[in-house]
Amino acid sequence: MAEFEVKKLENLMNSIISCCQERTDKEAKKFGLPYAEIEILKLLGQDRYATVTGLSSRLSVSKSRVTKLVGGLLKKGLIHITEDPKDARVKLFGLTAKGKDLLRDILQYETDLYNNLISGLRSEDRDMVLRSLDILLHGMERVKAIL
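Above: the chain's sequence. Below: its structure in token form.
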């Protein structure tokens, strides 16, 4: 492996990370929520209910951070809280109708964004880009596993 290949990968990864951060910042501004709250809405859209512990684990952040984020979403009327019927000490969070509507808008925005991105590629490049990203992801997961 040549040093220039390593440097090229490093530069490309830094550019991609920067671009992704810019996208999440713009998305957060567009929807008037911190991106971490958007992530919670997306997780709650996948599951009917979630706990602070479950959200903390899936987001890889502390329970206190999730508690703060959930508090913001509760104040905005985007999620509701209910007791676990099996254990009253456990609080379950789910999307309100307002939260579901906002999540639908967020997901449509993201779909439109990715559609715009891929449709901007030549048809013969689309499959190559997707295959290359898949290979890169598997390589990143392999490296992550040994860290």
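The longest helix spans residues 3-31.
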